[in-house]
Amino acid sequence: MANSADLLNALADQGPLGVADIADAISMPRPSVYRLLDALAHVGLVTVREDGRAQLGTGILHLASAALNGIPEVGAARTVMQRLNDLTGQTVYLCALRDRRIVCLDWVEGTKVTLMLLKPGGSLPPHAGATSRVILAYDDSLRSQVLDTVPLQEFTPLTLTSAEQLEADAALIRERGYSLSDEDVTIGVAALGVPLFDSKGLLRGALSVAGLRDDVLPHQAEYADVLRKAADEVAPKL
């Protein structure tokens, strides 16, 4: 099962791959890769192209749809996320904490930039990115765990990696109600994030808008306002 997951994740992250590339990516002997591809192709999760490279099969679509339908946050936020995308033109993210990682549950792609590091099913650590840092700011237990592991991974020279930086960042986020990610994950990309609470006031995740830095930062106040209103609209549905 672990090998199957590793192979599918490699195809999801890197696109179509040859057997040799898959073997390198998941540290598996080539004969074993052939057998695994045959098994996954039999159930429609993988397709082998005419050029011999493997890619995700259409069976993945059914599983992905079923998975999304089973996540309450996705159903509650989808309409609001599309509206945010229409208003801003930026990529809109819905993320939540899963096993000490901030996982992208859903997104609506922006019109100006598509080379985002974070994609549906992908994740970031709690100290990097708008959704990650806003969740970290409002989750005291998570923040305590993260601060015990400093220094943290540095994605760019602007990534916050020290306990002092993250504590100050959390205080600022709680004061103004939103996070600002300015090239701390990807150079040239900025994002704003707000916490997503349910009807009982429990933290369920975060919403964000992300795009080219020069397109996002001039609209910081505007985007923060529409994000807060969006989160308030989603809350009664959770």
What does this 3D model show about the protein?
By secondary structure, the protein is α+β, with helices and mostly antiparallel strands. The chain folds into two domains: 2-63, Arc Repressor Mutant, subunit A, CATH 1.10.10.10; 71-237, GAF domain (Beta-Lactamase). The chain has ten helices and eight strands. A hairpin with a 6-residue loop joins strand 6 (179-182) and strand 7. The chain is globular. The two termini are 33 Å apart. The mean pLDDT is 89.
Number of helices: 10
Shape: globular
Helicity, in percent? 40-55%
Assign the CATH class of the largest domain.
Alpha Beta
Briefly note the structural class of the backbone.
alpha+beta
Distance between the termini: 33 Å
CATH architectural label of the largest domain: 2-Layer Sandwich
Beta-strand residue fraction: 15-25%
- Biggest sheet strand line-up: 5-4-3-8-7-6
Protein topology:
Layout: H1 2-14, H2 19-26, H3 30-42, E1 46-48, E2 54-56, H4 59-69, H5 72-88, E3 91-98, E4 101-108, E5 123-124, H6 130-138, H7 140-147, H8 163-176, E6 179-182, E7 189-197, E8 203-212, H9 213-216, H10 220-234
Antiparallel strand pairs: 1-2, 3-4, 3-8, 4-5, 6-7, 7-8
